[in-house]
């Protein structure tokens, strides 16, 4: 078989190592452009608006329904042990620690990540990036960097909105519909949720997810084949790779943050 031959395996490994090296250099270059990007406030604000505001509707609706389901399922589980008053604490911890950053990142990858990949891919297919290089304009600094940092800023904001709306949804189901005591709901939450240990770690997660999802989307768009089929395949790869990256990073960070 061809794929078992040493030459074929060696070539495949060499190409993969080269791809990893290129992606690493591009990531470090984007990170190093933080100061020039923030000096271009208009470009950055446009990308934050595009990535954040346009993703807000799906984040709010999804967060509300996740809060509904989480409160409903949590109530029936806690009721078995006579701990229905801890429903608010369970909903808040589940959202700010885990579901808020992870689900918001997956939605962000499906909505904003695909838009980034398709936009960069269409610019490449239309030779706009090549035209910038011909005019001595760096497309990485002019096009990729504002989108990268816009996604990094927008992701924690969207995760915070998701968690806040989810807690509100949990309150509506648990207190208004089921009848859990509203004082117990909020007091248990306030006493049990730590700002630094829970909320802070959730924000760190969302920041890392924003870095990963935005970079994967930009890399796939920047390196796709300049054809309609190439842009379509790059968009599909963005969703798959970004989702897997979010889930893998979530496991690693959860093990580091909450296992001690």
Low-confidence stretches: none
Tally of alpha and pi helices? 10
Order of helices and strands: HHHHHHHHHH
Helix content: over 70%
- Taking the alpha carbons of the first and last residues, their distance comes to 48 Å
Class by SSE composition: mainly alpha
Give a written overview of the molecule.
It is a single chain. Helix 4 (56-79) packs antiparallel against helix 5 (87-125), helix 4 (56-79) runs parallel beside helix 7 (139-178) and helix 5 (87-125) packs across helix 8 (182-192). This protein has helices at 6-32, 34-39, 41-52, 56-79, 87-125, 128-134, 139-178, 182-192, 195-222, 228-258. The mean pLDDT is 87. The chain is built from ten helices and no strands.
What would you say about this model in short?
The mean pLDDT is 87.
């Amino acid at each position: 078989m061809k794929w078992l031959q040493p030459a074929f395996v060696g070539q495949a490994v060499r190409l993969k190592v080269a791809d990893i090296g290129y992606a690493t250099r591009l990531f470090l270059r984007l990170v190093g452009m933080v100061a020039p990007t923030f000096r271009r406030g208009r470009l950055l604000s446009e990308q934050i608006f595009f990535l954040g505001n346009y993703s807000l509707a799906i984040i709010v609706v999804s967060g509300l329904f996740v809060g509904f389901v989480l409160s409903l399922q949590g109530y029936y589980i806690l009721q078995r042990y006579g701990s229905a008053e801890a429903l608010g604490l369970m909903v808040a911890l589940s959202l700010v620690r885990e579901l808020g950053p992870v689900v918001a990142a997956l939605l962000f990858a499906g909505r904003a990540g695909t838009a980034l990949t398709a936009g960069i891919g269409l610019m490449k297919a239309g030779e706009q990036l090549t035209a910038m290089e011909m005019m001595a304009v760096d497309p990485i600094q002019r096009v990729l960097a504002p989108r990268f940092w816009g996604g990094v800023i927008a992701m924690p904001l969207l995760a915070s909105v998701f968690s806040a709306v989810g807690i509100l949804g949990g309150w509506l189901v648990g207190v208004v519909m089921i009848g859990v005591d509203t004082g117990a709901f909020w007091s248990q939450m306030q006493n049990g949720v730590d700002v630094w240990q829970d909320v802070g770690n959730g924000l760190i997660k969302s920041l890392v997810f924003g870095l990963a999802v935005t970079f994967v989307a930009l890399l796939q768009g920047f390196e796709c084949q300049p054809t309609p089929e190439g842009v379509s395949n790059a968009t599909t790869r963005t969703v798959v790779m970004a989702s897997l990256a979010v889930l893998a990073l979530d496991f690693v960070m959860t093990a580091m943050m909450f296992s001690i």
